[in-house]
Every structure is written in structure tokens, then in C-alpha cells.
Write a structure and sequence with these properties.
Number of helices: 2
Low-confidence stretches: none
Largest sheet: none
Number of strands: 0
Structural class: mainly alpha
Mean pLDDT: 80
Helix content: 55-70%
Shape: rod-shaped
Order of helices and strands: HH
Length: 57
């Protein structure tokens, strides 16, 4: 079986593109990935309201 010399560089480009694409996906979804492993942490999007409006009990 004959492999063209350009085939090796094409395979290398596919591997590098896959690694870089995976890196981009991890960077975009890093907060979701981190939140999956740290369920007890408070979301950064939660609004903390420390104003006492009084309670009507």
C-alpha cells in the first residue's frame, strides 16, 4: 500500500485541528464543566440581596 507524502501532513493537520478545536470547546464551556464537578458552589449569576425589606409575619 502506497501512502502519498502529503498524506502524513494531512493527518497531522487533522490531529492538530482536533486538539485545537477541543481546546476552544473547553474554553467556551469551562464554567459549565467546572460547575458539573462543584455542585455545592453558588452560581456566579445568582443575585445576593442583602437589603432587609422586613418580614410581614
Amino acid at each position: 500500500m502506497y501512502l502519498d507524502p502529503g498524506f502524513g501532513s494531512m493527518v497531522l493537520q487533522f490531529i492538530l485541528a482536533g486538539i485545537l478545536g477541543l481546546g476552544v470547546i473547553v474554553r467556551i464551556f469551562w464554567k459549565n464543566i467546572k460547575g458539573f464537578f462543584h455542585k455545592n458552589d453558588i452560581n456566579s449569576t445568582d443575585i445576593k440581596d442583602d437589603i432587609d425589606y422586613g418580614s410581614e409575619e
